[in-house]
Amino acid sequence: MSDVNRAGAVAGWTRVVTARPRLTLLLALLFTALTVVAGSGVGDRLSSGGFQAPGSQSSYATAALADRFPDSQPNLVLLVDTRGADPDSPAVAAQGRQLARTLAADPDVAGVTSYWGTRAPVLRAKDGGSALITARLRGDDDAVAKEVKRIAPAYRGAHGPVRVSVGGNAEVLHEMQTTIQQDLVRAEMIALPITLVLLVMVFGSAVAALLPLGIGIIAILGTSAVLRGITGFTDVSVFAENLTTALGLGLAIDYALFIVRRFREELAAGAAPRPAVATTLRTAGRTVLFSALTVAAALSAMLVFPQYFLRSFAYAGVAVVLLAAGAALIVLPAALVLLGDRVNALDLRDLLRRRDNAADRTEAEPGARYAALARLVMRRAPAFAIGAVAALLLLGLPFLQVQFGTADDRQLPGSAESHVVQQHLRQDYAGSPVGAITVLAEDVDSAHLAEYRRQVAALPGVVRVEGPVVGKDARSAYLTVVPDGASVDAGPQRLVGEIRAVPTDFRASVTGQAAVLVDTKHAIAQRLPWAAGIIGLVTLLLVFLLTGSVVVPVQAVLLNALSLTAMFGAVVWVFQDGHLSGLLGFTATGSIETTLPVLMFCVAFGLSMDYGVFLLSRIKEEYDRTGDHQASIVFGLRRTGGLITAAAIILAVVMVGVGMSRVANTKMLGLGIALAVLMDAMVIRTLLVPAVMRLTGRATWWAPPVLRRFHDRFGISEGGVPRTPAGTAVGAAPRSGEQRDPEPASRN
């Protein structure tokens, strides 16, 4: 694409979005109102599961056992506290049998088993203070969530001489979904006022500060409507709501900050509102578009994974990114045309300080500080590069000890009823071992099943084998294998493979927590190279189209990945090992849910590239104008350093709001990404990027001739300004409204 064609396209786009600004804003308001209606009730249609890999052996066995042997897979547990009485006393026994009969009569309930119906010791607490009634709720995750919401209140609380508490996986998932929705509202109530205050501090103008919030609201409401539509075709995780709020606010603020800041620069240089918007779209608007495509690419990589938990974040993430960018490139320019110089109105900081040159100080001093920092870093580039890399790698060392596990009731706060019930099962019921492995045998006869049971019992690490329990057709049965250790331990996971390797003349399918974990890890490992390849290739291509260099994209990918080391190290040190668990209010499980590192990598990588594109675009713009490599780095950091830091702090506030959730996985997601964003803005962009670009010198901008010609034809540069000949770069006249750095740098 020629420069003329690109300029014409941008000019045409500018005319479209600014020709009728009032109509544009009216249509945006109508769109927002429609999304409110379309997205209503989306929370009730979201699911709490999605961690298992569909199509895996454990997934098949779980579904088959639930259908044929509902007793083997109970998802509802009634913990009957006898209030000090003996469970076999007449009054307690009568009440227990009555509860079991009432539960069994419910058409949505199957496989009810109670202590009073079986007298099985495994259903009676070791201290005799309680007993169990277990059942299987029919249907998929959504159906089970509705059933437990209806059933649980009828059984919870006092019933004559006993008191009932509700637990089981169904209640855990329901309580988790309810808690997440409540926490999301609380996070919004906390994050929005703080964000508004920070925006006022950054912009100095209440009018300018409200613009990013408006863009964020459009993106969040629009994404809720998109998710509402997607739930009609596939499952969507309830956790995706948190990402929608965080990314919607964060990216809208990023994009609006960048565009409004550039618009104000053009106004300060003497441009009228419409020409200022045109220049802003030609420069900052292109950068926002590239940034959005990069973030969307990173998030879309999660579509390659089979678990709908991960796929849900791709649905929500891509939608909110594109809506935030669309609102920033359509609605925001129309508002800026109408506001003009009034974008600087209502400077609330005047209440705290004198007005003398307030705007000049606000704009100039942070830029000067970042310019000075860039010069310092480049003078000591090897020391800063080695020191920063070593520090980040050191912070990431705990991740080498990561243990992967599955989500369970311990994600909930210790006071949650389902957590309390499950904890009683772990501690007080010898017959409910954590990590039991279940084997479904199909098309089997008794002789082969007995021999198979003997071989499984002889495997190392098997404590005992219970069963078999034979089905009504006498051709199917299941065994319960109790391993030595919990499901997250290496022994039970190895045992799953050994059981599957036992030769049989019938079909044997293995499930249980350890088997689910093995299959989940296998599914993720199998598709992880594809996800990494998508992220890497798209990022390399987009950054190349922006810069015309083959070196800069490689630097960007490597430095972005490096910025995530502190996040992963902190996740293991805090959430796996339990440091700060008392302060942060969660229960450490000794493992990290298997899918979460993938999710956190994709989200944090995309956000890091967001800031990287902002910085690189301004550096490239200045390099195209002057040909001075080092001066361009100083210019880029001067113009974007404060902006990136402010955007990172605001996004971190939003993510910390998410991280205040009472659900441990959500807490880890929010706090981990907040840390990654801050490390990227304050270490990678301000220290490592200037140091590495100084070390690579003018070779930073190298590309082979064939790729250079490709970029000349298809690439997009922000400034669109022809480069000044190298011999006249230093000391060239600045553009209107710009100041040249007082210390010209050499051209290495």
TrEMBL record:
Residue ranges, annotated region (Disordered): 718-748
Span of domain Membrane transport protein MMPL: 53-380, 448-705
A Pfam short name: MMPL
InterPro entries xrefs: MMPL_dom, Mycobact_MmpL
Residue ranges, compositional bias (Basic and acidic residues): 737-748
Compartmental location: Cell membrane
Keywords: Cell membrane, Membrane, Transmembrane, Transmembrane helix
Transmembrane segments: 23-42, 196-222, 242-260, 288-309, 315-339, 383-404, 530-552, 557-576, 596-619, 640-662, 668-688
One Gene Ontology term, aspect cellular component: plasma membrane
Domain of life: Bacteria
SUPFAM superfamilies reported for this sequence: Multidrug efflux transporter AcrB transmembrane domain
Chief location of this protein within or outside the cell: membrane
Mode of membrane association: Multi-pass membrane protein
Keyword Cell membrane set for record: yes
Protein family membership: Belongs to the resistance-nodulation-cell division (RND) (TC 2.A.6) family. MmpL subfamily.
Name this polypeptide is given: Drug exporter of the RND superfamily
Lineage of the organism: Bacteria, Bacillati, Actinomycetota, Actinomycetes, Kitasatosporales
